[in-house]
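User: Sequence in, structure out. Go.
Assistant: Echoing your sequence, followed by the structure tokens.
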Amino acid sequence: MSRLRRTSIGPDGPGRRLALGVVLAAPAGGAAVPTLALTADTVIVRLAEDVLPVRTSGRLLLFLVDDGERRLAGRDPIEAPFFRSPQPVYSVAATLEPGGAVVFGEAEGAWPVPIAELEGAFRAQAVFRCNPDERSHRAWGNPRSAPTTIELARDRSDSIELVLSHVDARKPRSNPDPTFGDALVWVELRSEILSAVRGRDAFLRAGVALPPGHADGANAERRWPTVYVVPGFGGRDEGARGYAAMFAARGSSALMPEAVHVVLDPEGPLGHHGFADGTSNGPVGMALIEELIPHLEERFRLDRRPPARIVTGHSSGGWSAIWLTLMHPETFGACWASAPDPVDFSAFQMTDLYADANLFVGPEGDETPSYRLVAPGTERVLMTTRQEVGVERAMSPDGLSGEQWGAWMAMYSPALASTGAPAWVADPVTGAIDRYVVETAWTRYDIARRIAGDPERFLPLLPRIRIAVGTRDSFYLERAVRRFAERLVELGAAEGPLPREGGEVRIGDGPGMIWFLEGGTHDSIVPTATMRWSREMRDHLRALER
């Protein structure tokens, strides 16, 4: 961590503030950025001469973290957004050439206030997002600055410069894997379906962890069952390393299903796409079903029977697992999901998208919470929906941040004819819900409403599904699961009454169920649910062998 020097800028100038997004071309000979007259501190972000070889377009983001925020000590600013403590963020669409720079001042892409209104010490980091195929700020090809401590003051007009001097090259993963050898295989398959839609090469990726015995000659004719794992938000196929490590550990057969574990990559340019076909992400579910799974089954000798294909996931991955099971019953015959994203949009976290007028405030005018810290004897809201959406809008006023709300809109919303970007489900400034977008687009992805609207199709599939959620989920996701369970009771597909706190609700006449873990949070339920899920998956697969 370096501490940045200051240089005085334009003390005798006309005293205007510079608007965010002013792009300064690199002067001949690498001279300094021209002196500008300002009335408050401003930040200049310069692209180093040797980082990008050509003029490049993208979005330049500036992240700040209060230097006194202990909860974020040791975290790089570009790890934002931070649910436990939302921090300032600024952005601008930019085209940079080597040595060029952008000046940050007042802006539309700003949260919570313009830079000129900030006061104090901050850790700052900038990143130029120019890789069109990756959402992550740290994606290969995205130049970034080093985390640097700066000081901002409203009564000074200093120039603070950050230099985009670091860029990661793409590092292809090797087969055999350096750690696990042939027991871990990285798969990258060009998708003809997605490439045709996007107009450029698009790939489907997976990490495949092979169980002990898969390579044995005695099993050369064996067809192996498969556990397809959909990671949660921000997760990638890299998670396969964890399964490979568990297989390699002594005694793993007593803990894990004897199956090939395939960790899918649910990340697209607009965030977690959930393998749900849509306007913005394209036919990602179709590509999975028609291209990747057949390829994996041929390459790794996988059992093609639906009951031998398990799909599981947590959080956004939990929603995806349920969605895939219901939409593609000819492929997936069993599902285990934990803490899924909202499965009933009448309880979309703390908002009823069908009845409430505003995403940011409830019917009584109270700020809508989005993330809470739950600990023994206490519960504290650390982020509101207004803050979460505000940060995302600052990152991308068009709704293309790829963060949680941006990802939901890319999944559920129609694309705007004017920009091609997904439509905001609510006004990002006022929070007013767009009823047209909800009713004409989002309802198609409301799992509870889909089941109620076509019970003949979906009710017979419910016994395949197991859901677990904590009764004090950090993102209030238990509310949608409870509404979902209530809907199933009304349809006669589940037994009532529902437990007031912890307990189970059986679904249909099979193994399907909804499990409420009393006092459990979004993260704390994972070890408990994983242990039970593993045991049930083993029993399910052993029953197929009989």
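User: And one key feature?
Assistant: The first helix runs from residue 192 to 198.
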